[in-house]
Design a protein that fits this description.
alpha+beta, 10 strands, 3 domains, Umud Fragment, subunit A, 434 Repressor (Amino-terminal Domain)
Length: about 270
C-alpha cells in the first residue's frame, strides 16, 4: 500500500474526517505560530489518493492528530531513524569527535540472546552465534540499563594516529565522564596506562595525558607518527573523560587509501 493509503486507513479507524483534521491542524499551527503545520482538506485528500510526500511540519501534525509516533509515520515514507547509526558508519569523518548512540524508538524490539548454551565459557574465545541457544525479540526499553542513550562515546577520526597502533583510526570508544582527573598512578604495560578523550578549541583528541600544573600534554603512542601536543589547562583543553572500552576495526576501511596509513619504523 502507498503511504497515503495507509494514512487514510489510520484516519478511518479513528473515525476522523478530513475536515476534522483540517480544524485540528489549524489549532496546532496557531499554537506553534507557524502555518506550515496547517493541513487543508484538499491537501490531505491529495496526499491520501496520490503519491506525495508531506513536509516535516505536516507530518508532525498528523502524528499528533492520529496519536501515532512520529518515527512510525516516517517509516511509512521509507525513513528509518534507527538506521542513522548504520549510515554514520558508512561515511566516517576524518576528525576525532564525540558520538551519540541514540535510541529513537524504545518500543521497537531488537534481536537479543535470551538463553546461552550451557557449555558457554566466558574465558574462551568463540563465535557469538554459536554461544546463543535461543534468540528472542526484546523491547529496547528492557535493556535501557545499558545506558546507551546517556553514555558518552567517541569516534577516532581516520586521520587521527595519536594512539596508533594501540587504537586504530575509525575506532569507537566508550568514555567515563566521571574520571576527568589525569591520574598519576604506576602502570605495568601500555594497556594499563589511562587513555583520555580531550576537547580543545578546534576539535578532539584521544591519547595518553600528562599534567604539570596548568600544562596538559597529549602523549602519543611510541609507534605513532604523531608528536606530543601541549595546551594550557583548562583554558585551552578540557578532559571529557577516561576511555574505558573500545570497538576497533583491525583492517582499514574499504575506501581508505593505503597511502594515508603512516609508515612506522621497524623494531630492531
Amino acid at each position: 500500500m502507498r503511504p497515503g493509503e495507509r494514512l487514510r486507513g489510520i484516519r478511518n479507524r479513528l473515525g476522523i474526517t478530513t475536515r476534522a483534521v483540517e480544524d485540528l491542524s489549524q489549532k496546532i499551527a496557531e499554537a506553534e505560530g507557524n502555518q506550515e503545520f496547517y493541513i487543508s482538506n484538499p491537501w490531505l485528500t491529495q496526499l491520501e489518493n496520490k503519491q506525495s510526500t508531506p513536509s516535516i511540519y505536516k507530518l508532525y501534525s498528523l502524528s499528533v492528530i492520529y496519536r501515532t509516533k512520529f518515527s512510525d509515520l516516517l517509516l511509512l515514507f521509507g525513513v528509518d531513524l534507527e538506521r542513522i547509526s548504520k549510515h554514520e558508519m558508512l561515511i566516517p569523518l576524518q576528525k576525532t569527535h564525540p558520538v551519540a548512540l541514540e535510541v529513537y524508538d524504545r518500543d521497537r524490539a531488537v534481536a537479543f540472546p535470551v538463553r546461552f548454551d550451557p557449555g558457554f565459557k566466558a574465558e574462551q574465545t568463540a563465535l557469538l552465534s554459536r554461544l546463543v541457544e535461543i534468540w528472542g525479540e526484546i523491547p529496547i526499553s528492557l535493556i535501557q540499563h545499558l545506558d546507551i542513550r546517556r553514555g558518552k562515546y567517541g569516534y577516532i577520526g581516520l586521520k587521527d594516529y595519536m594512539m596508533y597502533p594501540l587504537l586504530r583510526p575509525g575506532s569507537f570508544v566508550q568514555i567515563d565522564d566521571q574520571q576527568k582527573m589525569v591520574r598519576k598512578v604506576p602502570w605495568r604495560t601500555e594497556y594499563d596506562r589511562p587513555i583520555y578523550f580531550v576537547e580543545f578549541r578546534d576539535g578532539y583528541a584521544c591519547s595518553w595525558c600528562e599534567l604539570q600544573r596548568n600544562r596538559l600534554s597529549l602523549v602519543p603512542h611510541p609507534l605513532s607518527p604523531c608528536s606530543s601536543r601541549q595546551y594550557e589547562y583548562p583554558t585551552e583543553a578540557e578532559i571529557v573523560g577516561r576511555v574505558t572500552a573500545v570497538a576497533m576495526r583491525i583492517v582499514d576501511y574499504p575506501n581508505h587509501s593505503p597511502e594515508e596509513t603512516p609508515r612506522l619504523p621497524r623494531r630492531p
